[in-house]
Amino acid sequence: MTDSRKLLLASIHDVGPRAEAQVDQLADLLSSLLGGPNFAMLVVPDHWGEAPLAGNAAYQAKLRHWADQGIEMFVHGWFHKDLAQHSGMAAFKAKHMTASEGEFLGLSQREAAQRMADGRKLIEDIIGRETAGFIAPAWLYGDGARAALAEAGFPLAEDHMRVWRPTTGEVLARGPVVTWASRTKGRQLSSRFFAGLARHGLHGLDVARIAVHPGDTTVPALLDSIRATYASFARRRRAGRYGELLHKA
């Protein structure tokens, strides 16, 4: 039975022309599972420096169409690629939590602020409205990124364990995001295992978050797990918008 007081926040990461076919596939999948375009998209302005949104009129039109449908658009870094040298805990995160994708883990405050501002302006100019917030690639934020984010004016931000209001630090939702990893067999198995646990153990959360990536479409077993997980949560709660958290606070 659906509990309208509880939210399901669904998202597609790494949206852009670099993975256009896979993003289209995921958008169709989530629309069918959630009864329409009830999800967010995390948009990368120039994925790995290979797929710039600037100048790509066809993809810009696609983003505007999605935004017009009501899909929330988040700024998702700039390049997504992490080119920094890390030490200590940051080196551990860069090695074990992502594959050179944590762009904002090692940036200075100045560089992080510039990329945030540039990404926001580009995407907002394309979609003709404000972006929903900022989410760092791989959900990883270094000290410079956190400092920049606090001053950037984004309404929302998200990491693995929470959604918060960057201007005040107020936490708006807690709980692990359910996601999948396609990079290795071991990561595929572990992410499927966690998703299975989530389908039984996370229904008590007021806000459940489930995120998919273009690479998930390359592994049929992951797609099966994604379908089962979204269906399980959608039966018990309504698919909503991240922006609703601002009004609940």
Describe it:
- The structure is a single chain.
- With 249 residues, this protein is of the alpha/beta class.
- It has a single domain, classed as TIM Barrel (Alpha-Beta Barrel).
- It has helices at residues 20-34, 57-68, 88-96, 109-127, 143-152, 185-201, 220-234, 244-248, and strands spanning 3-15, 40-43, 72-75, 133-134, 157-158, 162-165, 170-174, 207-212, 237-239.
- The strands form 2 sheets. Strands 1, 2, 3, 4, 8 and 9 form a 6-stranded parallel β-sheet that branches. It has a 3-stranded antiparallel β-sheet with strand order 5-6-7.
- The longest helix is centred in the middle third of the chain and has 19 residues, at 109-127.
- It is globular.
- The model is unreliable at 85-99 (pLDDT under 50).
Blueprint (SSEs and pairs):
Layout: E1 3-15, H1 20-34, E2 40-43, H2 57-68, E3 72-75, H3 88-96, H4 109-127, E4 133-134, H5 143-152, E5 157-158, E6 162-165, E7 170-174, H6 185-201, E8 207-212, H7 220-234, E9 237-239, H8 244-248
Parallel strand pairs: 1-2, 1-8, 1-9, 2-3, 3-4
Antiparallel strand pairs: 5-6, 6-7
Helix pairs in contact: 1-7, 4-5, 6-7
Q: Write out the CATH superfamily name.
A: Glycoside hydrolase/deacetylase
Cα shape: globular
Give the uncertain stretches in residue-range form: 85-99
Number of helices: 8
> Could you name the CATH topology?
TIM Barrel
The CATH class, by name, is Alpha Beta
**Strand runs, count:** 9
Terminal CA distance reads: 26 Å
* Topology as a string of helices (H) and strands (E): EHEHEHHEHEEEHEHEH
User: Number of domains in the coordinates?
Assistant: 1
| Mean pLDDT across every amino acid position | 92
* Known CATH architecture: Alpha-Beta Barrel
Pfam family, one: DUF2334
Organism: Novosphingobium umbonatum
InterPro entries: DUF2334, Glyco_hydro/deAcase_b/a-brl
Protein name: DUF2334 domain-containing protein
